[in-house]
Amino acid sequence: MESASITATGQATTDDHHHHGPPAYHQSARIDQTVLGILLFILSEIMLFASFFAAYFFIRVVTGPETWPPPGVELPVLIAGINTVVLISSSFTVHYALEAIRKDNHDGLKLGLVLTWLLGATFLFIQINEYIHIGFTPRDGAFGSIFFSLTGLHGAHVFVGLLLLTFATVRAFRGHFGPAHKDHLGVEVPGIYWHFVDIMWIIVFASIYIL
Fold this sequence. Notes:
Layout: H1 33-63, H2 77-102, H3 106-133, H4 141-173, H5 185-210
Helix pairs in contact: 1-4, 1-5, 2-3, 2-5, 3-4, 4-5
């Protein structure tokens, strides 16, 4: 009769050879698949933004500093700066929401998510209002095209982030989340994405409105 134990000679018996492939990783030694997925998605989005930034700086260098932005174009730096503060503030509120649910504070979770959504919606509203009153269109030369392309790309990401926050907020009010790690991934994943959106806007703001 075959045995699964190790013989006196130190050789494994036949039953030990039934296991094929490498041993499974311990769950605590690897990143959660959901978190890894959003991080890989963000990596692809960073490459997308990088291509737009490459186009922006190429056009800017070719055009020349003396005509960038074009004569007569005045960007609303103050308004954009206020909008930047609004969006950065939303990073703190979404972090507050995540920390609240980690401590099983459901009221804090709801408050943080609602505030984050309102701040994000405010940012998007101000940006749309800026588009309406800015005085040029995407058809007005290379500057207009790249300005609306880059800021519009970011605005689209803010919109997607608001959708994710909407789902998370609805689930929060239904009591779907808890302090265990697996029980609040629905908050952590939108939070990671939202932090990415905030950081990317800081780069967009600095490149277009400040430099």
